[in-house]
Amino acid sequence: MDQGEAPAPDRCPGCGSSHRIRDAALQETHCADCGLVFDRAFSADDVRFGSPTRTDGGRGVGPFAPAGSPRRPLGSTLGSLRDARGNLLDSSQRNHYFHLRWLMNREVTRHSQGVLERSPAREHIARAGNDLGLPPVVVAEAERLFREGTLRGTFRGRGLGASVGASLYGACRRFGLPRTLGEISSVVNTRRSEVGRAFKALCRGLGSPLPSVALRSYLQRYAQDLALSPRVRATVEDMLQCVEGNPELSGLSPHGVVAALIYLASERSGEPRTRTQVARVGAVTEVTLRSTTRILSRIFPDGPPG
Q1: How many structural domains comprise the chain?
Q2: Cβ–Cβ < 8 Å for 50, 122
Q3: Which residue among 206, 235, 265 closes a domain?
Q4: For 77-129, how does the pLDDT look when each residue is reduced to its tens digit (9 = 90+)?
Q5: What pTM, to 2 d.p., does this model score?
Q6: Residue 192 within a domain
Q7: What whole-number distance in Å separates Cα of residue 56 and Cα of residue 50?
Q8: Would residue 108 count as lying in a domain?
Q9: Which of 142, 233, 291, 293 has the most CB atoms at less than 10 Å from its CB?
Q10: What is the Cα Rg of the chain in Å?
Q11: What is the C-alpha separation between 170 and 199, in angstroms, rounded?
């Protein structure tokens, strides 16, 4: 290449070489022959997420923080020996900068740490969500509800177990997961009545009631646990369409209604399930199952519809 000739756009301006190397760790592109670093940035081809098993010093991208996780703000770092230009500080200046750094760390900690970081609620929610088999998005929603309920003062005077249980139950209802108050209260080691009162207080604090879980969500779960045949399951679905909005079933728990429908439909279809088995899967007592079945028998005196 002549001295007066300008290098091609894809060649190195120093040596004219066209061999370039992209370093994903340093996020730079340099010449393979002379080592000149180009100013033009590049976008990473593959995004690798961080993992505890990686040994490359944590370089790369991720893992991204999910919704509800604590946010750590990025701020300046004040040194204690040199100023921004690299000049050494005398004793008075070091004391002054040490005091400024202490104030900055205190303010950053105060703004970054919320109610979840100042209490063991996050650990309780994570453990209860793991025991219930909840997906991460539901656990994150429970953390958000707990944070909002604490800031609004709805959990004031209530135990941690009741507050955590109410947040988990509200998150399950928001995402339509069939989890009962009894299951959640047993996981958080709190009485069902306390979790229910905390959940009602949370709904009042939010200003809008959380949506209830659809009856078909309980049916999908119970049908799998009881190994119902497609014929019995279709019968229960037809019965659900008939009982929706029925005033005789107002005030009854939805999972109890679904359990009673399954017991009634399986018995009349020739594939009976015992009352004890249905009550255990439906998380209700046998007395509740018997009384609900009696009400449904009055609604369907001639058997299931169709």
Answers
A1: 3
A2: no
A3: 206
A4: 556 677 667 778 787 777 887 788 787 777 665 555 555 656 788 888 999 99
A5: 0.56
A6: yes
A7: 10
A8: no
A9: 142
A10: 31
A11: 7
